[in-house]
Write a structure and sequence with these properties.
By secondary structure, this protein is α+β, with helices and mostly antiparallel strands. The chain has a single domain, classed as Up-down Bundle (Glutathione S-transferase Yfyf (Class Pi), Chain A, domain 2), CATH 1.20.1050. It is built from eight helices and four strands, in the order βαβββααααααα. A four-stranded mixed β-sheet has the order 2-1-3-4, with helices on one face. Helix 1 (about 15-30) links the parallel strand 1 and strand 2 (about 35). Helix 1 (about 15-30) crosses helix 6 (about 185-200), helix 3 (about 85-110) packs across helix 4 (about 125-150) and helix 3 (about 85-110) packs parallel to helix 6 (about 185-200). The chain is globular.
Length: about 240
């Protein structure tokens, strides 16, 4: 199987939390795969990365990638969870993917204090074209964040919302080894991906500064990396 993901960037194993999520799910499930670093999401079946290629079939979206390996290999990372824990898992997945992720998109792509860092994604493109592509990408991200709803708030409120999400993650994690206890579950993949994309880039957004105050979050990220041999290229 081939997993098509964004390459490492900004001190993270991948530029995308969803790519990190998908790769961690495969590692957690102990499934053999080949990671293929791509940079053109338009080639994917949904026009996005990540996607999985298995026996010629393309499976888009980290959620459906997990459903595919779960069915094919009869592996269930959540089989030990109670009904209440499964509900918590779903709620925090939505918090990460549909809320905190967008707060970080605003920080990385829209906020002029930090958005110059995204130029690293376009280094392979010749200089003149690179400027055009970078400007177009920022404009597209600004529109996406606005239509999501997050971008309609002030800068201060957006970061407040993101910090509230991080605080909730830290509170739920507590002193547990993994997010829902002493055993890993599928939610750990997206929790890691989103937190890593906030904390590891050398971009001191208010969310990064806030998140680094939580010792349990820092220890949790290291634990995931040690357990699944998934350390970022730099720290």
């Amino acid at each position: 199987m081939e997993l098509i993901i964004f390459p490492p960037a900004l001190n993270c194993p991948s530029a995308s939390p969803y790519s990190m999520k998908a790769e961690l799910l495969l590692r957690m499930a102990k499934v053999d795969y080949k990671a293929v670093r791509g940079s053109n999401p338009g080639k994917g079946p949904n026009g996005k990365l990540p996607y999985l290629i298995d026996d010629g079939k393309e499976i888009a979206d980290s959620y459906f990638i997990y459903q595919h390996i779960k069915q094919k290999f009869n592996v269930d990372l959540d089989g030990h969870l109670t009904g209440q824990q499964l509900a918590t898992s779903l709620a925090f997945t939505r918090l990460c993917e549909d809320h905190l992720y967008w707060c970080n998109v605003y920080a990385r792509w829209v906020d002029p204090e930090f958005n110059h860092h995204v130029e690293v994604f376009f280094k392979p493109i010749p200089w003149g074209i690179r400027q055009i592509v970078t400007k177009k990408s920022r404009k597209s991200a600004t529109s996406a964040v606005y239509h999501h709803g997050i971008g309609r708030h002030s800068k201060e409120k957006i970061y407040q919302l993101g910090c509230d999400d991080i605080s909730a993650i830290a509170a739920q994690l507590g002193e547990d080894e993994f997010f829902l206890g002493d055993r890993v579950s599928s939610v750990d993949a997206i929790i890691y991906g989103v937190l890593a994309s906030v904390i590891y880039p050398d971009i001191d957004t208010p969310m990064r500064v806030f998140a680094k105050e939580f010792e349990n979050i820092r220890a949790y990220l290291g634990r995931i990396e040690d357990e699944f041999d998934y350390a970022p290229p730099l720290k």
